[in-house]
Amino acid sequence: MADHTLCTDDTICEPGAIPFAYWTIKAGSPERVDGGVIAETFVSIYVNGQDLATLMCSPLDQEDLVVGFLFNEGVIASVEEIGLIRPNANETTIDVFLTRREFNAPRRMVLTSGCGGGISFQNLAETQVPLESAMAITPQVILDRMADLNQAATLYKRVRGVHTSVLASEQVVLFCAEDVGRHNTIDKLAGKAMRSGVDMRDRLLVTSGRISSEMLSKARQMGVPIVASRTAPTSISVGLAEAWNMCVVGYVRQGSMRVYTHAERLGLDDQND
Max CA-CA distance within the chain? Predict the structure, then answer.
């Protein structure tokens, strides 16, 4: 197994990256840099001995990733349903044994962004009921937590090529996760919260990645009513947010943002436009 750590001459080691020398060219002037690239690996998930899924991911917080993935995919409803979680020596396989013997692998009906499929918006919308939550915050809270995300993105600052997400209260960041897959960061946040006994409902989810329908669905499963990103939501995620009573905020940067759905959660009244 490769050592997924970036070590430089100043003895700083960054988990989740590997050393790699590259050229930079600025104003026509080339320079050789001893830097690094983000590490990408895979982990296969077995539940009660059955092959469930193989995830391409970063080699960080993999047990959190697996727990959150199982929750967000509806395999488990709580961490108490897991009797044992055990990675192999190479950390390429994680075995999960539930406290119950019965397990039928669910059929995946929703494909990730960029994949084709015959699933309709109505099929997706009916997978969850509207979220019952009175959570409301100010736009400044979104800006503050995005600033916290930018500060917490240590791996991104070193090598780029990685997404960052945080689960936060109105006041502080509760958990941070980085991964090559933006949806993996959401699963990791769920896993971290569940394993720490922290309630995910009525929290704020802030991410660096595009808000796809899969991302929005995971947030809904977690009971998160407000999702904000540095970039854009997709058309399906906006439609789902409308149906699920969730506020979606995009392009959060430099004191500005775009509020796409349920703006009342940020104190905005559409009737006063």
Answer: 63
